[in-house]
Specification:
Chain A: This is AzlD family protein. Chain A: InterPro entries: Brnchd-chn_aa_trnsp_AzlD. Chain A: Keywords: Membrane, Transmembrane, Transmembrane helix. Chain A: Pfam families: AzlD (PF05437). The complex is a heterodimer of chains A (113) and B (257). In chain A, 85% of the residues lie in helices and 0% in strands. Chain A is an all-alpha fold and 113 residues long. Chain A folds into two domains: 46 residues; 65 residues, no CATH class. In chain A, helix 3 packs antiparallel against helix 4. With 257 residues, chain B is mostly helical. Chain B is built from 15 helices and no strands. Classes of the chains: A mainly alpha (113), B mainly alpha (257). At the A-B interface, helix 1, helix 2, helix 3 and helix 4 of A face helix 3, helix 4, helix 5, helix 6 and helix 7 of B.
């Protein structure tokens, strides 16, 4: 038995789009849950301060793990650009930081490969 | 500071009696419309700061396989930038639902603390009133709501003020991420020009905002190093979960010292 190639492709496409929308809705529900848990829990009691201190640090752990491959990319031009961006972060606000990041990365890749 | 149990009594007691008591705590009785307007004007400068984030997010999302409509769907349903950037960086077609939900929960776990911190300011509201308000509790709306209460020397969150702030931030976030998604493809392959580094820059700025000194944020370094090593050892996006967990475990084990 052979399958119709375009049909298979469109079924796959449909599955992908359904999964995308499902994932987005699951994200939304998860985020809303994080927004109400603390409120619902603390109407009665309070959080262990040790747990609170650990949780404070979690978002940073996630964000830094996400960008770790860029920081440890091994590509000299990109690592230099990250260093420049980090310096910009310390001194400037978001918009100029982003512009410096884009321009320095583009130029360094052009010059250094 | 209002005592919660006496507050409940006030709600049942005669309105006029309640009014005089709360007036002595609040500085002035609040006019709904002017409060809403005050919220909007307070949030406006912050809204301008949202726009570059939003445009970059929309453009990145489309690069990673989002359709243009799915971008405002995500930012409208989720409304939490950090988790949206994370989801986009982990996006595949089809996306890995469980991984993205788990990372969304981890990135947004700070909301649990924020929601808990908001409780004393919402004692005058019922659960039914509070739960919809919490949908809009992003970092900025949360911070502005509490700062405003402290400025007015009250423990009662001004709901129209908060809604004004939320409306401003929410609508600009959804609209400009949508615009970013629509115009992003016109720029072409963003990687070629270094536009992909915008993503790293945004994350570094977010991290700077979360920075509380080495004594508290040292687990970040554990996450960074472990994620970097795992990235070179493992296929796929598992380095994110691995690096994050390493940081949390380190904080749990050595957090006390």
């Amino acid at each position: 038995m052979t399958f119709d190639q375009p049909l298979m492709a469109s079924i796959e496409q449909l599955f992908t789009q359904h999964m995308a929308v499902l994932t987005i809705i699951a994200m939304g529900l998860t985020t809303y849950l994080t927004r109400i848990i603390g409120y619902l829990a603390l109407r009665k009691r309070r959080l262990n301060p040790r747990v609170e201190r650990v949780m404070e640090v979690v978002p940073g752990c996630v964000l830094i793990a996400v960008i770790a491959p860029v920081i440890f990319s091994g590509r000299f031009s990109d690592m230099l650009a990250v260093a420049i961006t980090l310096l910009a972060t310390l001194r400037l606000s978001l918009l100029p930081t982003v512009i410096i990041a884009i321009v320095s990365t583009g130029l360094l890749r052009y010059w250094l490969g | 500071m209002t005592d919660p149990s006496s507050n409940d009594v006030h709600l049942i007691a005669a309105d006029s009696a309640e009014q005089t008591i709360t007036d002595s705590i609040d500085d002035t009785p609040l006019n709904q419309r002017s409060e809403l307007l005050r919220g909007v004007t307070t949030a406006l400068p912050m809204t301008l700061g949202f726009i570059p984030f939003a445009l970059v997010l929309g453009a990145q999302a489309v690069q990673q396989g989002f359709t243009v409509l799915q971008v405002p769907l995500m930012t409208g349903v989720n409304f939490a930038g950090g988790s949206e950037f994370t989801a986009i960086s982990l996006w595949t077609s089809p996306p890995h639902l469980l991984l993205i939900v788990a990372m969304t929960f981890l990135v947004n776990s700070r909301h649990i603390i924020m929601g808990a911190a908001l409780v004393p300011f919402m004692r005058h509201l019922s659960k039914k009133q509070s739960l919809p308000l919490l949908f809009f509790m992003c970092d900025e709306a949360w911070a502005m709501g509490i700062t405003d209460c402290q400025k007015r020397n009250t423990m009662r969150l001004s709901v129209p003020f908060y809604l004004g702030v939320a409306a401003c931030l929410y609508s600009s976030w959804v609209i400009f991420t949508g615009i970013g998604a629509a115009v992003g493809p016109l720029i072409g392959d963003v990687e070629q020009y270094g536009f992909d580094m915008a993503f790293t820059a945004v994350f570094l700025v977010l991290l700077k905002g979360m920075w509380r000194g080495v004594s508290r944020c040292w687990p970040w370094l554990v996450s960074l190093v472990v994620a970097g090593v795992l990235y070179h050892l493992l296929p796929g996006a598992w380095y994110v979960a691995g690096g994050t967990l390493a940081g949390i475990i380190a904080a749990l084990i050595w957090g006390k010292h």
